[in-house]
Amino acid sequence: MSDPTQTDARRIAEEARDRVRFEEEALDLSDQVFRVARHLVGSREEAEDLMQETYARAFRSWRSFTPGTNLRAWLLRILTNLNIDRGRRQQRAPQTTSIDEHSDYYLYNKIEEAEGRPLDEERVIEKLSQGSIVDALAHVPHNFRDVLVLVDIGEFSYADTAQILDIPIGTVMSRLHRARRILKGELAEEVAT
Amino acid sequence: MTGSYFDPCEKCEEMMQPYLDRTLDDMQVQEAEAHLEGCSYCRSRYRFEVSLRRYVRTAAAEQMPVALKAKLAALRTPLQ
Fold this sequence. Notes:
- The complex is a heterodimer of chains A (193) and B (80).
- With 193 residues, chain A is an all-alpha fold.
- Chain A folds into 2 domains: 4-91, Rna Polymerase Sigma Factor, Chain: A, CATH 1.10.1740; 96-192, Winged helix-like DNA-binding domain superfamily/Winged helix DNA-binding domain (Arc Repressor Mutant, subunit A, Orthogonal Bundle).
- Chain A is built from 11 helices and no strands.
- Chain A has helices at residues 4-28, 30-40, 44-60, 71-85, 88-91, 106-115, 121-126, 130-139, 142-153, 158-165, 169-192.
- The radius of gyration of chain A is 21 Å and the shape is elongated.
- The A-B interface holds A 16, 19-20, 23, 27, 30-31, 34-35, 38-39, 44, 48, 51-52, 55-56, 59, 103-105, 107-108, 118, 120-122, 124-125, 128, 130, 133-134, 137, 149, 152-153, 155, 173, 177, 180, 183-184 and B 13-14, 16-17, 23, 44-45, 47-53, 55-57, 59-65, 68-69, 71-73, 75-77, 79-80.
């Protein structure tokens, strides 16, 4: 019969090894998690605070992660839950009643109209600055922006996004559709000014 | 014909996002591609959509501060 002290020691060593592996994998993903977090909240400072809270919680509750599943989605689920807990969403209530939503071709048409002549698509893109994209994103109401950021910046599938935000896939699709139109409306306003 | 007219470009515009997201069925994909093939107006707007999505992804990518990375690493459980 094996010595119980030795069995315990082996179990503790195995657990420590699993935990270290988990922590390393989570840290390797931190750049990608930050890229999403940065646009889910209003400022870089808020994003940094949220990242620290997220990783502190993830490291504490690492046993609840199922190995072999999507760790990046698991970390973002924690992050979005913390974001809600901190009441940031309540402070920035959605302005759904005053959203300007235009058709899909609206931005392209607006840029072409401003130039007064037909343009090829590369020239149209050149009219948009990096800063204008970041500003326009910040103006998209948060419940639409969350979906847009997860899918178009985080490159999450609809299914992962639905799981992270705890909403149905149909809601992900409809919010994404509206979010892209709102974003383009915001960009068109900048082009016009 | 009065009452049954529809604008194919308007329909193409409606299908643009689902086409790019690959959520259309085979028949709709064929319909969208046949229209794009013959319509330079929609084709240039399609190319713009592709470029815009790529541009939004790169323009929004902000590098994580090195100091934050160090702070996250410091949150690891100390080795016994």
